[in-house]
C-alpha cells in the first residue's frame, strides 16, 4: 500500500454568493481582501527568525502583502485576522490508487498568543492591520515576540483572514498564511524557485557556508537581491562554489570527515551540498 501526506491549514466555513466568484473574481457586492503570493503561486510559509536581531530585541513586526479586490477607498480600512489550527492528513491507497484509509493529526508547535505574538485585538497590533486610503495593495503587520523556547525550534502561527465591516473574503486559496517563528537559522522566506534554480536546494549547511563567504547575514533581503539580479546571483554563486571546493579539498576537513560538506553534518548518508554550475 502507498501512503501520501497532505499538510493543510484548517479553513473556517466561507459562504460565497456564487460558485463563480472564486474562479472569476466576480466580486461586486463589497471590497474583498486576500493575501498576495510573492511569486504569484500558492502561498508559502513566511519564515521569521530572531537570529538576525540583536540579543536585546524582544519583538519585531512581520509584514505580509495583501491585495484589495474592489478598488481603493477614501479612508483607511481594517483587516481582521484569527489564528487557526493546522492539520496533517495522511492517506493510504491500494494498488489501484483508491483511498483506503486516512488519519488526521493536528500540527504541533502552535504559536501562543502573548508569548510568540501580540494578540490581534491589542491596540498596538490592530493599528498595523489596515489598508491605507487610496491603495489596493498594501502590507499588514503582525508583531512577533521572542521567547526562550524559540532557541530550540520554531512555532507556527497560522493566520486566517476574517470578514468584517470593511472587507469580505477574496480567493479561497489566498485566505490563509502561516508565519514560522524561531530564534534559529531558517530558510529565508524569499528563497523561491528562482533561488533553487541558481543556488540549488536549501540546507542549513549551505546557508552557513554562504554567510561565511558573504561575511554578513544572508537573510530575506539578501536573497531577494539575488533573485532580482542575475548578475548579482551569478557573481555570488561563483564565490560559493570556490569556497565549497576549497572546503572539500582541505586536508583537515577530509581527515576529520567534515568533507565533503553534507546537508546534515550528523548524518554521513545525507546529501552532499552542491551549487548548480551550468545555468
Q: Can you summarize the main beta sheet? A: 4 strands, mixed
What is the structural class? alpha+beta
Strand order of the largest sheet: 10-4-2-12
Number of strands: 13
How many DSSP helices? 7
Helix content: 10-25%
What would you say about this model in short?
The chain is an alpha+beta fold and 279 residues long.
Characterize the structure shown.
22% of the residues lie in helices and 28% in strands. Helix 4 (204-214) crosses helix 6 (230-249) and helix 5 (220-228) crosses helix 6. The protein is globular. The chain starts with a strand and ends in a 24-residue tail after the last helix. The chain has seven helices and 13 strands. The longest helix is centred in the C-terminal third of the chain and has 20 residues, at 230-249. The strands form four sheets. Strands 10-4-2-12 form a four-stranded mixed β-sheet, with no helix packed on it. It has a four-stranded mixed β-sheet with strand order 3-13-11-6, with no helix packed on it. With 279 residues, it is α+β, with helices and mostly antiparallel strands. The chain has helices spanning 21-24, 123-126, 193-199, 204-214, 220-228, 230-249, 251-255, and strands at residues 2-9, 32-35, 46-49, 59-69, 77-78, 80-83, 86-93, 99-106, 130-131, 137-145, 155-162, 168-169, 176-182.
